Hints:
- With 361 residues, the protein is α+β, with helices and mostly antiparallel strands.
- It has helices at residues 14-24, 35-42, 100-110, 122-130, 150-161, 165-171, 173-192, 210-219, 231-238, 287-301, 314-322, and strands at residues 4-8, 54-59, 62-76, 79-91, 114-117, 134-135, 139-145, 200-205, 225-227, 247-253, 256-265, 274-281, 306-310, 326-331, 334-337.
- The protein folds into 2 domains: 4-135, 3-Layer(aba) Sandwich (Aminopeptidase); 136-361, Gcn5-related N-acetyltransferase (GNAT) (Aminopeptidase, 3-Layer(aba) Sandwich).
- Helix 5 packs across helix 7 (173-192).
- The longest helix is centred in the middle third of the chain and has 20 residues, at 173-192.
Amino acid sequence: MSELHIRQATLADKPALFDFLRLAYLDRWQSKFPERWEWEFEHNPFLRGNDLPIWVAVDGDRVVGQSCALVEPLVVHGKEYRVGWGVDFFVLPEYRGQGLGTRLQQANNAGNDIFMSLSMAASAAHIKSNIGLQPLPPVPVFTKIIHHEPESVLQTLAKRTKLPEILLRGAGLHHLGAGLLTARDARRDRGRIILPAGGVELIPVQQFGPEVDDLWARVSGKFSALVRRDSEYLNWKFARQPHAEHQRVIAQRNGQACGFVIFRQTRPPERNAGLILDMFADPKDDIIRVLLAYATHQLRERKVMYVQAASSVREFQQVFVALGFKQTKTATPMIRAGVAIPQEGWLLGKGDHDWDQFPLA
């Protein structure tokens, strides 16, 4: 075996990187390249210069590990920086146990002004902690079941009644229970539908335009830290991202944008679910409830099994609970930065990092 070394990748490494990705993601490499790879690492409008935000472990001419960064504009207390979200970290199994993972993450960390992760494997979180990243307050994840599954109901019935599953299954009670619960929740949701008030319109759009630039200028100061959500960023992230079909809806009040929501229905090989990825409005504006209720209703109409969302914003969290969502887990962001970073006031959700990617990880 030749000597292993770590370096930043260049476009000349593209064939070797694609060979590596075929091995690293055996069952889903088609969703990693070439379309997504080129969108994420080659044609990202927020990169500086021609360097790829990819650090590789190389054995001769062969790429055997990588740690990548999804580069985006991060605004902290009104000043813009570049954040590198750690993504697509992988070392081939036969090369593990040699410290390559830590060395790759160290190189990625050193190569970005600000280095962050939001959704990550436990092993990656452990390495990031060891190389100096600090945790931010956890981001709650909320889930709303739309169609109850008979097998899940069967397990609950068996647990609560202490009766054998075979008996309950034979009686068909799990199918009956699933149907009743689904119908009950649909009735409840009809009572939660929030219709736009006078002067408010909900407008689906293919592209974001100057109206959201104006919204960004008016509302971004309500948060201490967030990825820049203007038309340049939103169109790159949610209109041009390969594989994922995002729905984009702007709320206008008296002709002026006052918020937006972005959501999608998952596709095979993903489980049939709805994801509410991004929502932006003044946290004190009740338009956020209108937008989230609209997105939830649209996803219910598409017969998803459940809807999932996440938010670091307390007011947004309260709306999810009011709409029948339940907190099901949390994700703990981690960060290393050379500038003062606030602990509170972040806007983080499912659209940040690569938490929204296809297929849903």
